[in-house]
Design brief:
The chain is α+β, with helices and mostly antiparallel strands and 505 residues long. The chain has eleven helices and 21 strands. The strands form four sheets. A nine-stranded antiparallel beta sheet has the order 7-8-9-10-19-16-15-12-13, covered by helices on one side. The longest helix is centred in the middle third of the chain and has 31 residues.
């Protein structure tokens, strides 16, 4: 019955607007549509049977609760003896509003003399917040609640789960059960845990890469797992308590929207990074926003970001190049002796003579690691950029050239059959990225390395490029576009350097 009711109302109601606020009332339901939120309440149970959110720009939306999901934010009574099923109650509805919210208040008498349940949902007109107030009224309310407790159940609807991702991209597209507060972000989805304490002021709920539905009770509580992937909030024991308040955030995992609801929620963005690395990622995010405002297109801004980061890291690149030149020179000096030892000796004798050669030449056994110093210094920037691009809500649903969505693989065209690990689409960007990378390494010519060493070096770097191809193939197009642009800048800088050396001659 409920799916048919929801479908009928959706067919007769207007589409989810971007900015207008509306209230639609039928005989069995109430629908409130605000700038960012869209909630449909059934009078049977007085719960949201549809709960959606939209964000612009970009124009994207999600259904936290849909027709195939159980009602969201369900209340349950537990205690000695039989407790009324609150989902079977028939409620009346009253609509009011204030300057910030549209409010629907539901009332119903419990099948107990002298006890009435009142539920009030205040839906934010401009933000992503919903406030739920629950009260038990009547002369027998206190006696009725003796030994009983009221729980609120929250779940992750099907709409929160992204389409299955092939390859390594599956690491990004996950739905997590989290708790957020002054102590940071905690993953509370461990099924082995029967109960998780939730300090007063903390939020709990579910998040995907780009969306989150979270709730904060008005005091301390426990979070207990329930069947079907839901959790129950059990308030701390307070004898005589007859009123409860819950605040929901149901919107994008985007720093400005989250902190507008509660500054502590800002911790949810890039929560997987160390604090210093997270600060670096936020700095790069601000740089990308500035470049987007300047060039007017996020795809072009990502290319500009790759150029900007390359320029900022140019001093480190020069140091890395010098260290690599030193390693090449040492390797070329040692190689004739190593080749002679390898030709004449085996086993322990070969190892002993090789060590002796290193001592005679004053070379440390791990001298080749010097060439990695410059690269390792750039690794934090690499991680910060990629986490920022992976969780950047502003790229969700944004197209660029043939790419329909920068937050997903570029998916140039669908393959005749789906392939294990690679998925069902041909992604062009990873091929461009690897081709440019291999072209760059084949254009490198060291005057000190022998042909054998050059061959070995190119073989190793080509293997690394192929590993990057496998790693990046199913990653979001924004990340692959950035690395492709970085490789192209590297290739162009090499060609400019070669041209300058020729002009000097």
């Amino acid at each position: 019955m409920r799916p048919l009711l929801a479908l009928a109302l959706l067919l007769c109601a207007p589409a989810f607007p971007a900015s207008a606020e509306e209230v639609t009332v039928t005989g069995d339901s109430v629908r409130i549509t605000a700038a960012h939120l869209d909630l449909l309440f059934s009078l049977d149970g007085a719960n949201p049977v549809l709960w959606g959110a939209a964000a612009t720009p970009p124009p994207t939306s999600v259904r936290f609760t849909g027709e195939e999901d159980p009602p969201q934010a369900r209340l349950q009574l537990h205690g000695p003896g039989p407790s009324p099923d609150l989902q079977r109650l028939r409620f009346s509805a009253e609509l009011t509003e204030d300057s910030r919210s549209r409010i629907v208040t539901f009332r119903s008498d419990l099948p107990v003399d002298g006890v009435r349940l009142v539920k009030s949902f205040a839906v934010s007109k401009e933000g992503y917040e919903v406030e739920l107030t629950v009260e038990l009224l009547g002369p027998n309310a206190a006696q009725f609640m003796t030994g009983r407790r009221l729980e609120l159940e929250l779940g992750a609807g099907r709409g929160l789960f992204p389409p299955p991702a092939p390859g390594f991209a599956a690491m990004l597209d996950r739905v997590q059960q989290v708790a957020v507060g002054p102590g940071g972000v905690r993953n509370t989805g461990d099924k082995k845990m029967d109960s998780t304490p939730l300090p007063a002021g903390d939020w709990t709920g579910f998040r995907s890469r780009f969306w989150a539905i979270l709730v904060r009770p008005d005091g301390a509580a426990r979070v207990e797992p329930r069947s079907g992937g839901t959790v129950a909030l059990v308030p701390a024991e307070e004898p005589g308590r007859l009123s409860w308040r819950y605040r929901f955030y149901s919107g994008p995992v985007e720093h400005r929207a989250l902190t507008a609801a509660d500054p502590e929620l800002g911790r949810l963005v890039l929560s997987g990074l160390w604090s210093w690395l997270r600060a670096l990622s936020f700095g790069l995010l601000d740089l990308l926003r500035g470049l987007t405002a300047l060039v007017g297109n996020p795809g072009v801004a990502i290319i500009a970001l790759a150029v900007s980061v390359k320029l900022l890291l140019w001093p480190l690149a020069i140091v890395a190049e010098r260290l690599q030149s030193q390693v090449n020179a040492t390797q070329a000096r040692l190689q004739p002796g190593i080749d002679a030892i390898n030709a004449a000796h085996r086993g322990e004798e070969r190892a002993r003579r090789t060590l002796a050669l290193y001592r005679e030449e004053g070379v440390h056994l791990l001298y080749t690691l010097r060439s990695l110093v410059g690269f390792l210094i750039q690794v934090p920037v690499f991680i910060a950029v990629f986490d920022m691009l992976a969780e950047n809500f502003a790229l969700h649903g944004v197209s660029f050239l043939w790419i329909r969505d920068l937050s997903r693989p570029d998916e140039l065209w669908r393959l005749p059959a789906c392939l294990p690990f690679f998925g069902c689409y041909l992604n062009l960007l990873p091929f461009l990225m690897s081709s440019i990378s291999i072209a760059a390494l084949f254009r490198v010519h060291s005057p000190v390395l022998t042909p054998k060493l050059i061959y070995r070096q190119r073989r190793n770097l080509t293997g690394m490029a192929l590993l990057f191809f496998l790693l990046f193939y199913t990653f979001p197009a924004s990340m692959v576009l950035y690395w492709t642009s970085t490789n192209f800048v590297q290739l162009m800088s090499q060609e400019v350097g070669r041209l300058r050396r020729r002009l000097r001659l």
